[in-house]
Design goal:
Helices cover 45% and strands 15% of the residues. It has 159 residues and is an alpha+beta fold. Helix 1 crosses helix 3 and helix 2 runs antiparallel to helix 3. The two termini are 29 Å apart.
Length: 159
Amino acid sequence: MNWRRVLFLSLIALAPDLDVLFHVHRSLSHSVLVLAVIVLPILALARKHPTATRLTLLGAAGVLTHLALDLFQSYTPLLWPVANQSIWISTNLDVHIGSLPFFILSAKILTKPIDFAVFQSIDAPIVTNEGLGISLILLLPSLIGMLRRRDAPAKRPKV
């Protein structure tokens, strides 16, 4: 595993949140269409360079994952400028424990008009419990693989 590449791609996946530097959040940087406008020309330029193409596609996948996760947290302008509505997929899982446990999953797709309002200050956590949990879940297979490779006996070349 190339940790520099992983770090680079992780930072690319966080790029949509750089809009806070301009005192807005969940702005046009959270649009799939804006992502396409950025990624497609890069892919066209990189088409003869497999490594650049692969990194561009991986970076785009990371940003898409960011946008998908944001959909479940708050209103996100996913289809701006084609749609002037922000989308939020509100989910809830209730567990009833009685004589027989059962689960009630509810999901609603909510919309509201897009408002790229400028804020004066932001008072929010940098790392949320959900974000940390998802990161650990995503990193766990890689960490287990690293530990296995480290503990595996070295293969001897055949004579």
